[in-house]
Amino acid sequence: MLIFLWAEGHNGVIGQNGQLPWHLPADMHFFKTVTTGNTIVAGARTYRSFGRSLPNRQNIVVTHQPASNFPDTVIVLDSLDAVRTYAAAHSDDKIFVVGGAQLFVGLQDDVDFLYRTVIDANFTGDTWMPVMNYEKFQLIATQPGIRNDKNPYDYHFEQYQRR
Ligand SMILES: NC(=O)c1ccc[n+]([C@@H]2O[C@H](COP(=O)([O-])OP(=O)(O)OC[C@H]3O[C@@H](n4cnc5c(N)ncnc54)[C@H](OP(=O)(O)O)[C@@H]3O)[C@@H](O)[C@H]2O)c1
């Protein structure tokens, strides 16, 4: 199953200067909880933003670079078709596409399930989520995020499945 997992602020902003526009540890914790034990697929810029391959998950990077630029444990794919082929061959796995925008744009017709964190705040950014066609998805769960000193925004978590 191919799944998108992302967080967005107002206007669908997701990135700024190769990083997240916000610091929201509760969402990072959510990301870790949901993806651990599964597979994550990241574009090369997003993978770079992690600073390392993420532990306890199969890491897949999409890039035109040679595989030798990445650790041995990372699967390197050179096209979105290669991602589709991988997903078809691992259909029982939860495969989380974790960005960035280039992957979300290219795989939006393939994705089966969405995890979206909605942050109710304005951020300066340079990268945006593509406008998804939510008519093709059904909202099946919403959970409020807890606002506190370390997580100083209103935010909530949503799950959608393809209709
Ligand atoms: N808020 C969120 O949930 C979230 C999630 C993810 C990322 N982000 C943010 O979004 C920004 C990064 O997103 P981005 O869209 O700029 O970059 P990206 O999608 O992470 O990475 C782009 C790179 O991926 C590779 N790539 C993309 N499509 C490819 C294809 N069809 N075939 C082969 N390689 C392909 C290329 O790497 P090469 O140039 O190496 O060939 C390309 O330069 C960062 O600011 C990041 O923090 C936010």
TrEMBL record:
Pfam families registered for this protein in UniProt: DHFR_1
Report keywords, A-Z: NADP, One-carbon metabolism, Oxidoreductase
Q: In which pathway does it act?
A: Cofactor biosynthesis; tetrahydrofolate biosynthesis; 5,6,7,8-tetrahydrofolate from 7,8-dihydrofolate: step 1/1
Membrane-crossing ranges are none
SUPFAM superfamilies given in the database record: Dihydrofolate reductase-like
Q: Which BP terms in the Gene Ontology apply to this protein?
A: dihydrofolate metabolic process; folic acid metabolic process; one-carbon metabolic process; tetrahydrofolate biosynthetic process
Q: Does the keyword Transmembrane apply?
A: no
Q: Which reactions fall under this protein's catalytic activity?
A: (6S)-5,6,7,8-tetrahydrofolate + NADP(+) = 7,8-dihydrofolate + NADPH + H(+)
| Protein name, per record | Dihydrofolate reductase
Q: Which GO terms describe its molecular function?
A: dihydrofolate reductase activity; NADP binding
